[in-house]
Give the backbone structure.
Amino acid sequence: MKNSYKLLTPGPLTTTDTVKEEMLVDRCTWDDDYKAMTQKIRAQLLQLAHVSPQEYTAVLMQGSGTFGVESVLTSIIGPEEQVLICSNGAYGKRMTEICEHSEISYLHYEEAYDTIPDAQKVRHLLQEHPSITHVAMVHSETTSGILNDIAAVGEVVKEAGRTFLVDAMSSFGGVEIPVAQWGIDFLISSANKCIQGVPGFSFILCKIDKLMESKGKARSLSLDLYEQWECMNKDGKWRFTSPTHVVLAFSKALDELMEEGGIPARHARYENNNRLLIEQMQQLGFSTYLNGNHQGPIITTFCYPKNHSFSFAEFYAYIKERGYAIYPGKLTELDTFRIGNIGEIYPEDIKALVEIIASFLEEQKETRA
Ligand SMILES: *Cc1c(COP(=O)(O)O)cnc(C)c1O
């Protein structure tokens, strides 16, 4: 394969050859076999979320993950309503930007990037502000790699009788999320993260009664979640041209997830990759940005060793030449980089990566001496 290297990023990520091969055929969007595939995907997503088709439905939406988040925010919050956005990273903040653009009324509860949003603070905010009708937060904040406690916040949101939206983009499929049990009304994720498909659409798991209530509220034509559902729910036809090749690949990726042993098995693999990565990087002198127990199993933010004198560009190029692509940091106050361990990645990859990094550090020492 040309210029082949594996992606140690949070998506797009390394997919299997069998997933990529699915994209070698062309399909028409109104064909029965193709529409049946969309329906099969929707049913499998509900299964993975541990919800019943009587209570929940899955809607697929063209575009990357952000389009899915924007679709939900702009489709379900009416002009008299208000959303509380709990953030501790760039993706949480992005939800406030979407609200700004669409003139959706919001309150912003912001935590530091290494701190999880606190359920008791959310409880107080909901008591103080009866105007809040919806609460939104990110599960796995890919900015740092922190895993937020959506179960605790969901409980508070349910008690207060509000609607709960979760961006589970980089966790769904790789971390078990009992969607109904945790009080989630809308969960957003995308094709190219833990399910290990290729980029091109997002999907939204929706509590049916809440979705029905949103009819007519959408502020966008193409991102109208209710209309997309109404069309797709009839027979699996997408409202506008669907990303056919991506859908074929995703269907295969879902089957491969089931073959691997479902979310518990994938979670175990990711967690094992993550533990190994952190242990071995620490041995090389790198410390993790998060030093508590909220480090998630998806991606890790590392700080550079003390007194290093290399740039990220140099470091990145050296590693890429040897077969792996890592990710720059996304923190403003600290010099960091990130390594994702999701996708078709195994302990052998982690070990190979760490050896490459060790030899990079060794060469650095030699050139300085
Ligand atoms: C990847 C990701 C998104 C979506 O980003 P896109 O670039 O639009 O795919 C949103 N939220 C989180 C937490 C993510 O990791």
In short: The CA atoms of residues 78 and 217 lie 6 Å apart. The chain has two domains: 18-259, 262-368. The longest strand covers residues 56-62. Residues 262-368 form a domain with the Aspartate Aminotransferase, domain 1 fold (CATH 3.90.1150.10).
